[in-house]
UniProtKB/TrEMBL annotation:
Protein name as catalogued: Uncharacterized protein
């Protein structure tokens, strides 16, 4: 299942749109948004990671384990409380964080909804190429997201993986 996700900040995310609490404060700060993200990751409502640069990413989704390897990968737990997950970005998360009337998915993101059975999932995120290489986009797919049913959550991410640029976000 191919998806195209915009990224103007160097971060992509997956959320449970039926459980993720988006609004933080009209004047959120870097510290408050990071704490919000950590709390939502702890509750399996969010996975967010750095991409290495801003780009229009091609994402392939697999509901079966693959043997694909890439430049880097990370695995986290996320719940699909009503059988939906949203493939999104930092820009949408921060819009929802600042404006209480913004709900996710936003209208332009509705095609980025993934339907699957309700439940807990391990999500393996594979970035296929080094974004800092001379040819980071030789692959037609930039990321693969693998979802597999899980019986218990993995250890919560204590920080945003690959967040080299988050200090500027």
């Amino acid at each position: 299942m191919p998806f195209e996700i915009t990224d103007d900040s160097g971060f992509l995310a997956i959320i449970d749109p039926d459980a993720y609490r988006g609004f933080v404060h009209t004047d959120w700060t870097r510290e408050t948004i990071q704490e919000h993200f950590k709390q939502e990751m702890c509750e399996q409502h969010l996975l967010i990671w750095g991409t290495g640069l801003e780009h229009f990413w091609s994402v392939d989704v697999s509901l079966q384990p693959t043997k694909v390897t890439g430049f880097r990968e990370v695995i986290g737990s996320i719940a699909a409380s009503r059988g939906r997950l949203l493939l999104t970005n930092y820009e949408s998360l921060t819009m929802a964080a600042q404006f209480s009337d913004v709900t996710l998915p936003q209208a332009h993101e509705r095609e980025q909804l993934l339907s699957l059975s309700p439940g807990l999932y391990d999500c393996r995120i594979i970035q296929l190429s080094d974004p800092e290489s001379d040819a980071p986009f030789e692959e037609s797919v930039s990321f693969i997201y693998e979802f597999a049913h899980a019986t218990s959550p993995r250890e919560t991410w204590s920080d945003i993986p690959w967040r080299s640029k988050f200090h500027n976000a």
